[in-house]
Amino acid sequence: MRPTVHDIADTAGVSLATVDRVLNDRPGVRGVTKAKVEAAIATLGYVRDVAAANLAKSRVYPLVFILPAGDNPFMRGLEAEVRRAGFHSAAERTRLSVVPVPAFDAAALVAAIDGAVADQVSGIAAVAVDAPEVAAAIGRAHAAGVPVVTLVSDLANSGRDHFVGVDNVAAGRTAGSLMGRFLGNRPGPVAVLAGSMRVRDHRERLDGFLATIAEMPVGRAVLPVLEGQDDPKLSLSLVSGCLASTPDLAGIYSLGAGNQGLVAALADRTDLCVIAHELTAHTRAALETGIIDAVLNQDAGHEVRSAIRVLRAKADGLPVIAAQERIRLDIFIKDNLPAGPDEDDNN
Amino acid sequence: MRPTVHDIADTAGVSLATVDRVLNDRPGVRGVTKAKVEAAIATLGYVRDVAAANLAKSRVYPLVFILPAGDNPFMRGLEAEVRRAGFHSAAERTRLSVVPVPAFDAAALVAAIDGAVADQVSGIAAVAVDAPEVAAAIGRAHAAGVPVVTLVSDLANSGRDHFVGVDNVAAGRTAGSLMGRFLGNRPGPVAVLAGSMRVRDHRERLDGFLATIAEMPVGRAVLPVLEGQDDPKLSLSLVSGCLASTPDLAGIYSLGAGNQGLVAALADRTDLCVIAHELTAHTRAALETGIIDAVLNQDAGHEVRSAIRVLRAKADGLPVIAAQERIRLDIFIKDNLPAGPDEDDNN
DNA sequence: GAATTTTTGATGTACGTAAATCAGAAATTT
DNA sequence: AAATTTCTGATTTACGTACATCAAAAATTC
Fold first, then answer.
1. Whole-angstrom Cα distance, residue B274 to residue B291?
2. Which of B296, B336, B342 has the highest number of chain A CBs within 10 A, making it the mutation to test binding with A?
3. What is the spatial distance, in angstroms and rounded to an integer, between the CA atom of B125 and the C1' atom of C18?
4. CATH topology for the A168-277 domain
5. Which nucleotide lies at the shortest CA–C1' distance from A58?
6. Which of B178, B180, B328, B199 is nearest to B257 (CA)?
7. Residue A17: which nucleotide is closest by CA–C1'?
8. What is the pLDDT of residue B347?
9. DSSP B6-33
């Protein structure tokens, strides 16, 4: 059996109360005694039974996820994963809530962050909008002792404790690399459909993509970026216009959330090389019909669970194992699509 | 706060003892009373606090992982993940142990399974060797009430409770599909390097690969399978021989664990399209230098944690959520390689 | 050496569940 | 209606930790 606090008390020759004082950093222990206890802990290899500790503490960790509202399928997927995690995380004494804010609205995001701090939550996860007032709000939360992680899109120099998301430059490079390989020596320019260049993750993906295309031995032109605002209708018209004006178009990289419009514009044109982001109902269907050739995906479930782990660790003052919290970039083609639309693993 | 057993007792108008009897399927409860309790559970939305329950039970779950010995990097990775999971799973009252057996040795595997059953473990995870005596041993374990999951390579008709691993036919199809796209209309045959055709997962991968190649509009020859027995030296010589005798070779699909030999044989030939399985030190390095173009990977950490969850659920008589336990097939190219060699997430 | 402060011990309660015992109530059978 | 069986209630202990209280011991100061 694992050693308990009683075993420590016995081998250290002190009372249970003293062990408790050492373990929980309570005052009133001489240095000598503390050392004795710590030695006993080390020799016995004691590790606190977190389940029992949490039970005794009956502490709950209210965590808030601030997510963009609207019909962005990826964000809705994130929200679904939060709910799913909330269902399972009751045992871990975590209480999750979702606060929707208008997309790209810095003021609303600031209000939501300040509100969460006022509510005394133990942690905040937010999809950051790249604005100085948001960085200031995150700074205030951090100063108030509330850990903050940025989700999906980062905000450097904001005092956020951690970023949960993929390396978006690498994502862009991956898209460029696949595009190059799939096209081979087929001629023609490629187009890029983004949401907005004011969003950091979109900018980073574009940078990576352009860099990889530029490095290729086959020179290939990249048309000016189409900014569809992640809106289905606008994306549809932009892509349609591009198709009409560029008959020799070879491929499209859709790095934002405008895939519904993209797929609508392409109809049944399977001759183009199309690479998109995030596995949703639309992209999945388009992969299966051959309209889209590859989908790059960040697993919403993994991100949510990573955010929860990080926030809990921060709330407890524990270290975060960076390597363990790295979010992978998944590549999906028609043949390795996961089975269900609601696939996920709790791994 | 979450409802507790006391709340159920109150709203159902019964005693704590009766609630306990219903919750733990103990005898001595009339159908009417049981229904009352279950109604209370439903209306209150009670969920058992597993942490408290495990604490009270002070039950431990000894689980055994039976893995092939030897220097197969993927198997060693699996073992490392078991150790890592064991470190974290102390809180979940799971005790993990690894039993190494000679690779492809059915008799040794049978002995290990029977030994685990004799040791009264609560669950067995084993990399199955495709032999009738192994199926029989698994059947004995199952009959003795010990749940068994097959890991990586399945064994149908054996009475195993669950299979933890990827869909290997889909893996082969993915490899074929990528190979076709990467090669485009470049002519030349492709070679296949396998470990052994007597292993089920290798056969399945080959089937998927051949089917996809055959479906392609561009006719492409596949050379006879090279069986390298997952041995570096044998694989090296087989691939070298193939390269010498087939100057117009366009690509190689390595579906087993012979990648060290494969990479050695290819030296610095980056002109071939090479697709391999499992992200190890060798395949990672070869991806980075361009010798290998894509690596298909099953995440050892995910598999181990899935196996643990499934075995615990089976041991407790709980249902397994199949969708949650599906293992994904990762595609890695140079650009989306995860950062560290010991990358992993506990998600 | 007395008075004070600091450190330690002893003890109890709590968290939510499991599991056992024993008495009493209700249902069933005779 | 009595005897029996089946069901239910009340109560207790335990799991490993957290946390509080009060007394006792040790160290420190005056």
1. 7
2. B336
3. 28
4. Rossmann fold (3.40.50)
5. C15
6. B199
7. C9
8. 39
9. HHHHHHHTS-HHHHHHHHTT-S---HHH
How far in angstroms lies nucleotide D12's C1' from the CA of residue A55? 21
List where CATH 3.40.50.2300 sits in chain B.
59-164+300-327, 168-277
Instruction: Provide the residue type at B85 as one letter.
Output: A
Q: A306-345: per-residue pLDDT in tens? A: 999 899 888 877 778 777 788 999 999 999 998 765 444 3
Homologous superfamily (CATH) for B59-164+300-327: Response regulator (3.40.50.2300)
Does B93 contact strand D, using a CB cutoff of 7 Å? Answer: no
Residue B259 near residue B283, CB atoms below 8 Å = yes
Q: How far is the CA of A5 from the C1' of D17 (A)?
A: 8
Q: A333 and B177: CB-CB below 8 Å? A: yes
How many Å from the CA of A316 to C1' of D27? 34
Determine whether the distance from the CB of A59 to the nearest atom of strand C is below 7 Å: no
CATH ID of A5-48, from 3.40.50.300, 1.10.260.40, 2.60.40.1260, 3.40.50.450: 1.10.260.40
Examine the pLDDT at A346 and tell me if it is beyond 50: no
Residue B51 to residue A47, Cβ atoms within 8 A: no
C-alpha radius of gyration, chain B, whole number: 24
- Nearby residues of B171 by Cβ (< 8 Å), 6 or more positions away: A336, B204, B205, B208, B255, B277, B296, B329
A29: CB within 7 A of chain C nucleic strand: yes
Does the nearest atom of strand D lie within 7 Å of B13's Cβ? yes
Would you say the C-beta of B332 is within 7 Å of strand C?
Answer: no
pLDDT at A163 > cutoff 60: yes
3-state secondary structure of B341: coil
pLDDT, tens digit, 9 for 90 and up, residues B180-233: 999 998 999 999 999 988 788 999 999 999 999 999 988 899 999 999 988 999
CA-nearest residue to B333 within chain A is A174
Q: Which strand (E) or helix (H) includes residue B332?
A: strand B329-332
Q: Over the stretch A4-28, which tens digit does the pLDDT of each residue have?
A: 999 999 999 999 999 999 998 888 8
Nearest CA in chain A to B45: A87
For residue A245, name the pLDDT band (cuts at 50, 70, 90): very high
Beta carbons of B95 and B60 less than 8 angstroms apart: yes
Q: Return the CATH architecture of domain A59-164+300-326.
A: 3-Layer(aba) Sandwich (3.40)
Kindly report the bases of strand D lying within 7 A of a protein C-beta atom: 6-12, 14-21
Q: Measure CA B180 to chain center.
A: 27
What is the pLDDT at residue A87?
A: 66
